[in-house]
Amino acid sequence: MIQITISSHLGFPSVSIHTKYYDMATVPGIGGRILEFGADGINLLYQNQSLAGHRPKYVADNVEEMRSQRMKGQQLLYGGEKTWLAPQADWGDCPYADLDHGEYELEIQRSEDTVKLLLTSPVCRETQLQIIRTITCYGDKPHMDIEQKLINHGPGPVKKGLWQVTMLNRDGIVEIPDGATVYADQPVMLLNGENASAIHDAKGWRMEINNNLLYKLGFMTDAGQTTSRLPATNGKSYTLMKTYCVNPKQTYPHNTVVEVYNASDYHYYELEVHSPVYTLQPGESASYTIRWELQAVQEGAS
Q1: Residue 75 burial (C-beta neighbours within 10 Å; 0-12, 13-18, 19+)
Q2: Which spans in the chain are helix H?
Q3: pLDDT tens for residues 20-68?
Q4: CA 31 to CA 225: how far, in whole Å?
Q5: Distance (Å, rounded) from C-alpha 238 to C-alpha 258?
Q6: Which residue in 238, 241, 228, 235 sits closest to 172, CA to CA?
Q7: Average pLDDT over all residues of the chain
Q8: 57 CB burial (10 A radius; 0-12, 13-18, 19+)
Q9: How much of the chain exceeds pLDDT 70, in percent?
Q10: DSSP classification of residue 80
């Protein structure tokens, strides 16, 4: 059975989904992001309370004015999960405002045991791109599917990747399995790699994230799965498992599929997954789906 409630998260209206396996909440007003995923009152996702209720307004008559206002502003780290566009070199320190924290339209589609939340961004005033996020929850399954769709409304072709960025409460343990044909002998050192603790064994890479040292590592693997585990205060351990498709023959932004970022100024780390790079002609679209599954076990249980 699925329950839907209208609530509030971080000072914004939200839609909460409750199943027997997990609780999830999304906030259309700040980028259609997910701000809650967990169970038993435990939320795996970080929320930045200092930004509660805050969303800047942009008054721009053209692309240049919009870009100038965005780049002069701060990166708004609300928390939770959202869709960015890769590569980051295209936009710098602050992601495209209309897509990152713009007001998304919400449509709820419900069947007997399934709920779909369709979250549609405004058309980005800088890029003429649009994102549609479709979150599908099932009453009889322990997972949900997050489809990210990118549409090119511009006059020319674009090359972009869909980039799911998930901000998780620290401390945590991340595991990135080796793929059958592609795996990383060494991580890609994206930022301060010497600060990270990453151990490779017969299964793949394992990272214990328990400090505030700033770093970012990338991993190229076609395993199509990665997990993040949170040991909670209630004696249980909660694991977020992400499952997705990887095509080794395609090009990936940043030359990675999975990236792990650890923050220094806030109490979170990020587990990020990249789609391949898509070349979209005017009017074309591309979609990339990532499945989330919540697993909860008693600490010490075999």
Answers
A1: exposed
A2: 63-72, 97-100
A3: 999 999 999 999 999 999 999 999 999 999 999 999 999 998 999 999 9
A4: 25
A5: 20
A6: 228
A7: 95
A8: exposed
A9: 99
A10: S
Nearest to 230 by CA among 38, 21, 23, 36: 38
Is the per-residue pLDDT at 302 higher than 50?
no
Cα–Cα distance measured from residue 176 to residue 5, given in angstroms and rounded to the nearest whole number: 34
Given a cut of 70, whether residue 300 has pLDDT beyond it is no
Distance CA 290, CA 256 (A): 16
CA gap 114, 156 in Å, rounded? 38
pLDDT in tens, 56-103: 999 998 999 999 999 998 899 999 999 999 999 999 999 999 999 999
Q: Which residue has the tokens 């004696």?
A: 235
The full set of domain ranges for the chain reads 3-298
CATH code, 3-298: 2.70.98.10
| 228-to-32, 60, 68, 170, 299 alpha-carbon distances in Å | 22, 40, 37, 10, 15
Measure the CA–CA gap between 120 and 158, rounded to whole angstroms. 20
